[in-house]
From TrEMBL:
EC number: 2.7.13.3
Catalytic reaction(s) noted: ATP + protein L-histidine = ADP + protein N-phospho-L-histidine
Primary enzyme class: transferase
Protein name according to UniProt: histidine kinase
Transmembrane segments: 7-28, 40-58, 64-84, 96-116, 128-154, 166-186, 198-215, 236-257, 263-280
Matches recorded under NCBIfam families: PEP_his_kin
Classification of source organism: Bacteria, Pseudomonadati, Pseudomonadota, Alphaproteobacteria, Sphingomonadales
Organism: Aurantiacibacter atlanticus
Length: 702
């Protein structure tokens, strides 16, 4: 009987301590709790829990529990004072602070009495006197605290009483119990053991009253811990119960008293430990635990905030070590249902769906057409999530066989099919493997998987769009290069065509034949240069720059058109630049050719070269029809827009890009009916060197 009573007291102290700790942590971490005494209440509960643990662990006669009891009483007193701030009375009632300070001083005298007890431990008379002082001080504390509790509740406004009644009741119960306890102790000159044993019950009831006061309405009274807290707490509870059973059975075997008692005890502990090591790590047991707790403790199966954060983290994972997006998409769905593996099927060009990604499922053989076109159409139109366990017994219920082919039904590990739809268009289907703790999917599973499926579909559609855009950009770059090549070939073809027509008239002229050979050689060199440049059009002037004289280059260009049109260099300052001579010649030829094509036969194209503010300025002037301001602003430097019939519209664009690549600038002035002036500016060699040094210095500073 005595053993049962001691065990009941031990468990009562543990329950009181655990309840105080739980409420303390809830008050300290919950953002919904408000009020001036929240932190003080959490602190008081924490010290009370420490005191209860010390009694359970060290006994009622230990010095540790005496010290923690003083700390706990001081914490309860501080909580009582902070409760006066509920309706701001702690600022208007002056006598409160002196009373609280006096009571705190009286309680702190217990530290001196504890030290005196330790010093005079061998003298019974001194011990009795010290106990009398300790009981007296505690009586003063209880009386003063009860007076404060009374004033706290009676003096509060009517609305404030609704929030104060439960804390006031808890504090009143604690101090009233201690008043009776220390009164009996003072009269008997000793500690009443029964009342001391029941102090844990008083603390436990006070914690319950405080908990009711914290959550005052029905919705708050609903038990709603986080899922991770519930799973971990329940696991600890199971482990604790297991250990308690082990201890009880082992002690019972030891109390048998036979010669085999110790052998039975050791054998039981060994067997129980082996069972624990075998069963506790089981995934099936953990799955059963999660399902059981979700069904019985929570209104919803899923913690949607945690699921969404995990989903976002899985999909948003990046870096060279991250798995491909398609595999992460399967994992994101599988994590929701605790599935160990999965697959993703995506549409084929020929129709139907094919395997696109596996996640931790390498051994399942998948045919080339995993789902037929009719099955894909069913998922797209119905948006059904299929639980394959419902289909295996033959309960089709209007679901066509194409939606769930025979190879899937034959594999027992296959569990569910989730369609991924983007704007009502099917972009994929996820196949999930059976989780360790299989269950039947319900409406909550369907709702969450449907939302997640749509979100995943948007990610997959975005990746498909990016792939298509990248492919289109590569084709655009290829087409642009071809357009540039065709433009250059067109210019060469014009030169060769003109040469062929003149050859019919002047073939017998030795001077013409000499010039024709030179022209053919130049055309051949340009074609070869064009082939060499074809791989560099993306970089626009990426060739190593060299210093050369612009006057000589402009004279060369004038000589190219000597027999076809008058191109005159009217001013020739000595200008040296560092640039890609070949690319610059190509740009100037484009501009001069365009000027010739828009000018009359008798209207010369004028070139001018001069220095201006550290730059070499080249002007190309024609007297053609000119261009409108709107054309210059919106179309001149846009590819594939031309003012000439049959033109490619890329000469000006290519010329500007080549000049920009060399650090220069190309501007245009034009008036309709009067002509056009292109102005090309390049930094002189000295300015180019200075700019390069400044750029290198800025990089070093950075």
């Amino acid at each position: 009987m005595e053993i049962a009573w001691d065990l009941a007291l031990y468990l009562t102290y543990l329950a009181a301590a655990a309840g105080a700790v739980a409420l303390c942590l809830w008050l300290a971490t919950n953002q919904r709790t408000q009020g001036p005494a929240v932190n003080a209440s959490a602190g008081a509960l924490g010290f009370a829990a420490l005191w209860a643990f010390s009694v359970a662990g060290f006994g009622r006669q230990s010095v540790i529990q005496d010290v923690l009891l003083v700390a706990s009483n001081l914490a309860w007193l501080w909580m009582l004072y902070r409760l006066f701030g509920y309706d701001k009375r702690d600022k208007s009632l002056g006598p409160i602070r002196p009373v609280v300070a006096a009571l705190a001083f009286v309680e702190m005298m217990q530290f001196a009495l504890i030290a005196a007890r330790l010093q005079y431990d061998a003298e019974p008379g001194a011990q009795l006197l010290i106990l009398q002082f300790a009981f007296t001080f505690r009586l003063l504390l209880c009386i003063g605290a009860l007076v404060l509790v009374h004033n706290l509740y009676v003096g509060a406004a009517q609305m404030a009483r609704l929030g104060l009644r439960w804390p006031a009741a808890a504090l009143g119960l604690l101090f009233l119990y201690d008043l009776n306890f220390y009164t009996v102790a003072y009269l008997d000159n000793g500690t009443p053991e029964l009342l001391e044993d029941l102090r844990a019950v008083a603390l436990l009831v006070s914690v319950i009253l405080l908990a009711i006061g914290v959550v005052r309405n029905k919705s708050e009274l609903r038990f709603s811990p986080s899922r991770s807290f519930a799973f971990q707490s329940f696991s600890l509870l199971l482990i604790g119960a297991y250990l308690a059973v082990m201890v009880v059975v082992a002690q019972g075997l030891a109390y048998i008293g036979s010669d085999y008692g110790r052998i039975l005890q050791a054998g039981f502990v060994l067997l129980a430990s082996a069972i624990a090591l075998t069963v506790l790590p089981s995934k099936r047991l953990r799955g059963w635990l999660r399902v059981t707790l979700s069904k019985n403790l929570f209104q919803h199966r899923y913690d949607y905030r945690s699921e969404w954060l995990r989903f976002t983290d899985t999909i948003g994972r990046a870096g060279p070590q991250a798995t491909p997006l398609l595999e992460r998409a399967v994992q994101a769905v599988a994590d929701i249902t605790d599935s160990p593996s999965g697959m993703l099927f995506t549409p084929r060009e020929e129709g139907g769906m094919a395997l696109a990604a596996r996640w931790q499922w390498p051994d399942l053989d998948v045919p080339g057409e995993a789902i037929s076109a009719k099955g894909a159409q069913f998922f797209e139109e119905s948006q059904f999530i299929l639980d394959l366990d419902d289909l295996r017994p033959g309960r089709q219920d209007g679901i066509p066989a194409d939606a769930c082919p025979a190879w899937l039904l034959a594999d027992e590990a296959s569990w569910a099919l989730i369609p991924l739809l983007h704007y009502e268009r099917l972009v994929g289907v996820v196949l999930l493997a059976r989780p360790p703790m299989a269950r039947q999917l319900d409406w909550e599973d369907f709702d969450l998987l449907r939302v997640v499926g749509r979100q995943l579909a948007s990610y997959l559609a975005e990746q498909t769009s990016q792939d298509a855009l990248g492919e289109a950009q590569r084709f655009d770059e290829f087409n642009r290069r071809i357009a540039f090549v065709m433009h250059d070939i067109k210019n060469l073809a014009s030169q060769l065509s003109l040469l062929a027509r003149n050859a019919e008239k002047h073939a017998d002229n030795p001077a013409f034949r000499t010039d024709m050979i030179l022209t053919l050689r130049n055309s051949t060199d340009k074609l070869q240069s064009l082939l060499d440049r074809l791989g560099r059009y993306g970089s626009m002037g990426g060739k190593e720059r060299e210093e050369f004289d612009l006057g000589a280059l402009l004279g060369k260009i004038c000589g190219l058109y000597a027999d076809r049109h008058t191109v005159t260099l009217i001013s020739d300052d000595t200008c040296s630049v560092k640039a890609d001579a070949e690319a610059l010649e190509q740009a100037l030829v484009h501009l001069v050719q365009n000027a010739i094509e828009v000018s009359d036969e008798n209207s010369p194209v004028l070139l001018e070269l001069r220095k201006e503010s550290g730059s070499a300025v080249i002007e190309i002037v024609d007297s053609g029809e000119g261009m409108s301001p709107d054309f210059i602003r919106t179309k001149l430097f846009k590819p594939f827009h031309s003012s000439k019939p049959g033109g490619f519209g890329i000469g000006a664009y290519e010329a500007r890009e080549l000049v920009r690549a060399m650090g220069g600038r190309l501007d245009v002035e034009s008036r309709e009916g009067l002509g056009t002036r292109f102005v090309l500016r390049l930094p002189l060699s000295e300015a180019s060197d200075m700019l390069r040094v400044m750029q290198d210095n800025s990089k070093e500073v950075a």
